[in-house]
Amino acid sequence: MSKTDRENGGCLCGAVRFDVNVPEKQFAICHCGMCRRWSAGPFMSVHCSGKEAHISRDTGLCWYRGSEWAERGFCSKCGTTLFWRLAETPEEMLIVSVEAFDNADQFRLAEHIYVDAQPERYAFADNCPRLTEAEVLAQFQQES
Ligand SMILES: [Zn+2]
Ligand SMILES: [Zn+2]
Q1: Ligand with the closest atom to the CA of 81
Q2: Residue 99's domain is classified under what CATH number?
Q3: pLDDT score of 144
Protein backbone atom coordinates (compact mmCIF):
# COMPACT_ATOMS: atom_id res chain seq x y z
CA MET A 1 0.00 0.00 0.00
CA SER A 2 1.33 3.40 -0.91
CA LYS A 3 1.57 6.21 1.57
CA THR A 4 -1.14 8.16 -0.27
CA ASP A 5 -3.77 5.60 0.73
CA ARG A 6 -3.38 6.55 4.36
CA GLU A 7 -5.17 9.36 6.11
CA ASN A 8 -3.85 10.92 9.30
CA GLY A 9 -5.69 12.46 12.17
CA GLY A 10 -5.78 12.97 15.89
CA CYS A 11 -7.38 14.64 18.87
CA LEU A 12 -7.33 18.29 19.84
CA CYS A 13 -4.37 18.07 22.26
CA GLY A 14 -2.27 15.60 20.26
CA ALA A 15 -2.21 12.81 22.84
CA VAL A 16 -3.91 10.53 20.31
CA ARG A 17 -2.74 10.26 16.69
CA PHE A 18 -3.82 7.69 14.12
CA ASP A 19 -3.50 6.74 10.50
CA VAL A 20 -6.08 4.61 8.74
CA ASN A 21 -6.98 3.17 5.38
CA VAL A 22 -10.12 4.85 4.02
CA PRO A 23 -11.85 2.75 1.32
CA GLU A 24 -14.21 5.55 0.33
CA LYS A 25 -13.80 9.28 0.93
CA GLN A 26 -17.26 9.76 2.36
CA PHE A 27 -18.97 10.12 5.72
CA ALA A 28 -22.33 9.40 7.32
CA ILE A 29 -24.21 11.39 9.94
CA CYS A 30 -25.74 9.49 12.84
CA HIS A 31 -28.64 11.15 14.63
CA CYS A 32 -29.14 8.57 17.40
CA GLY A 33 -29.40 9.80 20.97
CA MET A 34 -26.19 8.14 22.16
CA CYS A 35 -24.08 9.63 19.39
CA ARG A 36 -25.57 13.09 19.93
CA ARG A 37 -24.89 13.08 23.64
CA TRP A 38 -21.41 11.64 23.17
CA SER A 39 -20.25 14.02 20.45
CA ALA A 40 -22.30 17.13 21.34
CA GLY A 41 -24.20 16.92 18.05
CA PRO A 42 -24.96 14.45 15.28
CA PHE A 43 -21.95 12.15 14.90
CA MET A 44 -20.27 12.57 11.50
CA SER A 45 -18.03 9.61 10.78
CA VAL A 46 -15.97 7.76 8.20
CA HIS A 47 -16.01 3.98 7.74
CA CYS A 48 -12.41 2.70 7.87
CA SER A 49 -10.83 -0.70 7.62
CA GLY A 50 -10.10 -1.71 11.20
CA LYS A 51 -7.41 -4.17 10.12
CA GLU A 52 -5.43 -1.29 8.66
CA ALA A 53 -6.03 1.23 11.40
CA HIS A 54 -2.92 2.27 13.22
CA ILE A 55 -3.00 4.25 16.45
CA SER A 56 0.42 5.88 16.26
CA ARG A 57 0.12 7.73 19.59
CA ASP A 58 -2.31 6.65 22.30
CA THR A 59 -1.17 8.44 25.45
CA GLY A 60 -4.72 9.67 26.07
CA LEU A 61 -6.91 7.09 24.34
CA CYS A 62 -9.78 5.75 26.43
CA TRP A 63 -12.54 3.28 25.41
CA TYR A 64 -16.04 3.54 26.80
CA ARG A 65 -18.32 0.53 26.35
CA GLY A 66 -21.62 2.29 25.75
CA SER A 67 -23.64 -0.79 24.83
CA GLU A 68 -23.41 -4.55 24.82
CA TRP A 69 -21.88 -4.66 21.38
CA ALA A 70 -19.99 -1.43 20.81
CA GLU A 71 -17.47 0.89 22.39
CA ARG A 72 -16.48 4.50 21.86
CA GLY A 73 -12.94 5.86 21.83
CA PHE A 74 -12.04 9.36 22.96
CA CYS A 75 -9.10 11.33 24.32
CA SER A 76 -9.15 11.38 28.11
CA LYS A 77 -7.01 14.54 28.18
CA CYS A 78 -8.90 16.88 25.85
CA GLY A 79 -12.20 15.00 25.42
CA THR A 80 -12.15 14.73 21.63
CA THR A 81 -14.64 12.26 20.15
CA LEU A 82 -12.62 9.86 17.98
CA PHE A 83 -13.70 6.26 17.33
CA TRP A 84 -16.59 3.80 17.37
CA ARG A 85 -16.03 0.05 17.02
CA LEU A 86 -17.58 -3.32 17.71
CA ALA A 87 -16.54 -4.59 21.14
CA GLU A 88 -16.24 -8.28 20.22
CA THR A 89 -14.51 -7.90 16.84
CA PRO A 90 -12.66 -4.57 17.09
CA GLU A 91 -10.23 -5.55 14.33
CA GLU A 92 -12.94 -5.62 11.65
CA MET A 93 -13.79 -1.98 11.31
CA LEU A 94 -13.14 1.40 12.79
CA ILE A 95 -15.59 4.25 12.56
CA VAL A 96 -13.66 7.52 12.80
CA SER A 97 -14.98 11.03 13.47
CA VAL A 98 -14.63 12.96 10.21
CA GLU A 99 -13.59 16.04 12.19
CA ALA A 100 -10.60 14.17 13.65
CA PHE A 101 -8.90 13.91 10.25
CA ASP A 102 -6.20 16.43 9.39
CA ASN A 103 -7.73 16.78 5.93
CA ALA A 104 -11.47 16.51 6.60
CA ASP A 105 -12.37 18.63 3.56
CA GLN A 106 -11.84 15.74 1.15
CA PHE A 107 -14.78 13.74 2.56
CA ARG A 108 -18.26 14.05 1.05
CA LEU A 109 -21.55 13.44 2.83
CA ALA A 110 -23.10 10.11 1.76
CA GLU A 111 -26.09 9.47 4.04
CA HIS A 112 -27.93 10.13 7.28
CA ILE A 113 -28.68 7.26 9.67
CA TYR A 114 -31.04 6.80 12.63
CA VAL A 115 -33.13 9.69 11.30
CA ASP A 116 -36.13 8.44 13.28
CA ALA A 117 -34.18 9.51 16.39
CA GLN A 118 -33.41 12.97 15.05
CA PRO A 119 -34.88 15.84 17.11
CA GLU A 120 -36.72 18.70 15.45
CA ARG A 121 -34.36 21.42 16.71
CA TYR A 122 -31.94 21.06 13.80
CA ALA A 123 -32.07 20.06 10.12
CA PHE A 124 -29.63 19.51 7.26
CA ALA A 125 -30.43 20.90 3.81
CA ASP A 126 -28.82 18.16 1.65
CA ASN A 127 -30.67 15.54 -0.40
CA CYS A 128 -28.63 12.48 0.65
CA PRO A 129 -30.43 9.25 1.63
CA ARG A 130 -32.02 9.17 5.10
CA LEU A 131 -32.19 5.79 6.82
CA THR A 132 -34.17 4.84 9.91
CA GLU A 133 -32.80 2.55 12.62
CA ALA A 134 -34.70 -0.43 11.13
CA GLU A 135 -33.27 0.27 7.67
CA VAL A 136 -29.72 0.55 9.05
CA LEU A 137 -30.01 -2.74 10.94
CA ALA A 138 -31.48 -4.52 7.88
CA GLN A 139 -28.56 -3.27 5.77
CA PHE A 140 -26.09 -4.36 8.43
CA GLN A 141 -27.55 -7.88 8.57
CA GLN A 142 -27.32 -8.20 4.79
CA GLU A 143 -23.62 -7.36 4.88
CA SER A 144 -22.67 -9.81 7.61
ZN1 LIG B 1 -6.39 14.88 23.27
ZN1 LIG C 1 -25.39 6.86 16.55
Answers
A1: 1
A2: 2.170.150.70
A3: 64
**Average pLDDT per block of 10 residues along the chain, 144 residues long:** 74 97 95 97 95 92 95 98 94 95 97 98 97 93 76
- 21 CA to centre of ligand 2 in angstroms: 22
The domain containing residue 80 runs over which residues?
3-143
The DSSP element (H or E) to which 136 belongs, if any, is helix 133-143
Contact 14, 97 (CB under 8 A): no
Q: Are 77 and 15 in contact, with CB atoms under 8 Å apart?
A: yes
Q: How many domains does the chain have?
A: 1
Q: What is the CA(43)–ligand 2 centre distance, in A?
A: 7
pTM to 2 decimal places: 0.92
Centre of ligand 2 from the C-alpha of residue 17, in Å: 23
